[in-house]
Write a structure and sequence with these properties.
Blueprint (H helix, E strand, L loop, with lengths): L2 E6 L5 H10 L3 E6 L2 E6 L1 H10 L5 E10 L3 H9 L15 E6 L6 H20 L13 E6 L2 E7 L21 H11 L6 E4 L6 H10 L20 H13 L9 E5 L2 H14 L5 E5 L12 E5 L10 H16 L5 E6 L4 H5 L5 E7 L2 E8 L20
Parallel strand pairs: 5-6, 8-9, 8-11, 9-10, 11-12
Antiparallel strand pairs: 1-3, 1-4, 2-3, 4-7, 6-7, 12-14, 13-14
Helix pairs in contact: 2-7, 3-4, 5-6
Amino acid sequence: MKMEMVATCLFGLERLLGEEIDALGCKRIETMDGRVTFEGDEYALAAANIRLRCAERIFIKMGSFRADNFDSLFEGVKALPWEMWIGKDDAFPVKGHAIRSKLFSVPDCQSIVKKAIVDRLSNNYGIRWFTEEGVKYQVEFFIFKDIATLMIDTSGTALHKRGYRPQSGEAPLRETLAAAMAIISRPREDVLFWDPFCGSGTIAIEAAMLMSNCAPGLNRNFAGESFPLIASDVWDEERDRAVGDIVEDSNFEAYASDIDESILEVARENAKRAGVADRIKIFKEDATKIKKLDRKGTIVCNPPYGERLMTVKEVELLYKKMGETFAGLSPWQIYILTSAENFERLYGRRADKVRKLYNGMIPCGLYQYFKNYTNDRTGEKKGQSFHKS
């Protein structure tokens, strides 16, 4: 059963998500801010939910059409084959977004979309009243520049909720963003991966799952599993295939440290639930006092921004101390996520590359240092690159 699907993601992760979709063997159709449209069958849909590390949700795309007024929205929605999925007893709540479009009132659009679906299903089933007590099909519309796209959510709970993190710190990093940071840093078996601001351990856990090829959605369920049109065998087969792809003998090693000892037990429990506790050493350590070990290493971290943890002045001092300490780790690679626009000045060194990402709704930069520097605060580049980005 061929269909179009839409995978959504945090802004800035579209390229990584697209590469993941390519790896599934699916054909990409369109990429725009926060979403990638692709083509595949029901097995691809199940695999996308189970395997994609950077996706937030997987939708079945019902169709797209121009909608610059309520009449065109109603007729466009009504023309779509909703009866293919939604039975006469099923639930079909509606939600959505409208951006840079003439139809900007979300509540009004919700009402129109709902009425149009009801009208379509009424004509097909010969009834006017729907109990909506059966399978839930969450309908979502996205209207962008007067083009409406109608979709059905197959994920249910957002995909960043892997199931291993019932508890987190005060300013938790979304698992999908942590996975993206790990992917960008290119972890290797012969290189120590270290998050010195680990909190509940998310970055190190996602890196360990990546290196053991453990699918992030293996230990959770999805809304699409209740859809009668997708056989339960499809989900079972894709889960079995993902389990078979797990690498058991990886030599990858991660360190996860934090100055707050109270959060470390949470990190340990999360690592156990994720099945990667044997790959991560979790311990108390001040990030501004860490020492380079006699091996290659990569630092990947998400220090406080001064928005939810610490004051701005405390964070500025922290970044200065980080710059002094991390300079002594050369030629280790460093990847730091922060929303501070003056980070490089405080850190004392210009990044080799800065990637714009979003931590929730907070615009951030992933500051990447992968060249060898001397310990100075001039920002001058010296030495040779031991890893090209």
